[in-house]
Amino acid sequence: MTTVASTRPAHPMAPVHTVGQRPRRSGRRAGVLFSTPFLIIYLLFLVGPLLMGIVLSFFNTTTVKDGLGGWVGVSNYAKVLGDSLFWDAMWHSVLFTLITTPLLVGLALLFAILASRIRRGRVFYRLAFFAPYVVPSSVVALIFLWMYTPEVGLIPKLFSAVGLTAPDFIGSTSGGWTAVILMTLWWTFGFNFVLYTAAIQDVPPDVYEAAAIDGASPWQQIRLITVPLLNPTTSLVLILQILASLKVFDQIYLLLGGGPNQSTRPVIEYIYDTGFTSYRGGYGAAATMVYFVIIVAVSAAWYGLRRLRATGTAARAAA
Amino acid sequence: MNGAKLFNRLCAVCLTLFALIWFVPFAWAIITSLRQDGSITQAPMSPFAGGWSLHAYSFAWHNYPIGYWYLNSLVIAALAVVFTVAFCSMAGFALAFLRFPGRNVVIALVTAGLMLPTEALVLPQFIEYRSLHLLGTYWALVLPSVAAPVSVFIFQAFFKGIPTPLIEAARIDGASWWRVYWTVCMPICRPAVSTVSILTFISSWNAFLWPLLVLNQTKSQTIPVGLSSLVSNTNIQYAEVMASSVLGFLPLIAVFLVFQRRIVQGVATTGIK
Known about the structure:
Chain A: It is a multi-pass membrane protein. By secondary structure, chain A is mainly α. Chain A is about 70% helix and about 0% strand. In chain A, helix 3 crosses helix 14, helix 5 (about 120-130) packs antiparallel against helix 8 and helix 8 runs antiparallel to helix 12 (about 250-255). The two termini of chain A are about 35 Å apart. Mean pLDDT of chain A is about 85; it is low at about 1-20. The interface between A and B is large, with 118 and 118 residues.
């Protein structure tokens, strides 16, 4: 990246006295001017919705007409926290996270390690696993819905070919979860795979050579060298995956509509329903804020843990 | 040594098998789109039964406003790319080279922004956009993707790689900060520009929930939202639906094939930072 810059002739350091009062002041003005456009958009459209959500959650705003409506204090929050449907939806998002995270992280690690042991065809694997990631969710849903179709779909046919009866992918809760998870696996797996392959490429090859000379088997090399060296990457992939899974909406909404009987509805769809089907904007905003706090708490916990571990190793290294 | 070789061979076989499985949904969609609905229901598993034709494509093109959807997606993604590159590179430049009042505040805000789960905020976002009368416009979709803290960091990291003597020399020669940014730094940062452009393009093109809320006219929808109206398990026009989804994924797969190295690199670096 920096090679582009370094091919240019190196200039001698500028003498300090030429950089006087005027340039420094112009630098200040330029700095403000350069960052203002981004800052305005950022404050209006990223911080704005957050503040808006906080304000709305204390009013009984509706989504059908303008205006805030009346002040209701914390009663929205009380209702959200007491609503079993909200907690059901929360549980569905958590359940999805609990199932998909180990699968997507574990398989990505495994496949990336397998790919690292093969010299040829890296581009081919990358293409195969990452291509689905750039496809829109609704296209993925269309294709998978067709593959799940009873009687004529590819997947029920495969089930009957090996003598099993396919679950009811769209009509039952457990079948629905299977359908959503398979589709998610196919769709998003490539992202973690790419993160892991990039990290594996950074492992210096002489570590393996040394291990091979010492007589370490491939399995030992993987278990004792690759996996431990990938620990920081695993921690990162893990948190990215947890946050992404907690935000699940597209797959469940498109494939199942949160059904059957809202038994798979995730939180974002709950918020969507309260805001855009029952038009309860203030209430939906309160649900948004509860959910928001949970997500921020998860990522803050991860940052905290990582810092704790970093200072722990630093202390150990110092001792 | 022989054992290691055997192990690697086994890895290759295993991985290739899975890679082929990963291609199946694409292949199955393309095959289905070329067949006729009658022969699909009669002999679902024999891909050549009933012959192949492009009939489903012309049906899909004429019956769904796919052309409009393409145009909307394209305009929105292009505007998002232009504004993201312009605004985020300027902010990145300021953070990398300039000391100005409020710099630390900007850095803190942008860092905090990385942790904000913006998708969770759709409902208040919707009400805010409504009060600004932005609903139903392209801007409603462009603006949220411009407010991207990640892009600022990508640019800042690239600008920091430029040796400061180069900047100082340009300044001594009397170049304004704008000229330093535009004629010295931006040309050097072409890789960052293309990384940010491609990633912004893909995420803007694929956005689903927000455009679903914001664009309520059929003709003003984007490709993902438009195609989602075809998702239904009672739809038995398999070939037509698959033809539309092939039309939905082809442009992205094309973009991906052309820029795959840069895309993968971009994802890896932004993910790791």
